[in-house]
Specification:
Blueprint lengths: L1 E8 L8 H16 L3 E6 L7 E6 L2 E6 L8 E9 L3 H18 L6 E6 L18
Antiparallel strand pairs: 1-5, 1-6, 2-5, 3-4
Helix pairs in contact: 1-2
Amino acid sequence: MRFMSIVTSSQPPAPPTPQLLEAVHKLADREIKAGRMLDSGGLMPVSTGAQVRIADGKVSVIDGPFVESKEMIGGYAIFELRDKEEAVALAVEFMQLHKEHMPGWEGTCEVRAYAMPHWDGVCEVDARARA
């Protein structure tokens, strides 16, 4: 099953410590070599982004920073794993690295499975499946 881990924090963005970067790179290298990590990346600050919204029937574009943002996505990783339990265990390991190497940081790692066309209640999001 394919999973995405999404890291969010309500704290002001701070660069990761060198120790955290080293530990995360070791974890990523291990998962890439095992063929489990498909992609990952950190995101630039919200001040460099934009939001495209629909409200009152109108599409609008808002450049960052976004004053109403309570939590910001800092990064993501995509994995091919056996099940949700394996995905959660990997997220716990990742967050433990933050606890050990970036004291005082608080955040969340949300683990979500990719939508699959054969699951009930899920819209078909992959246009290739229709081709």
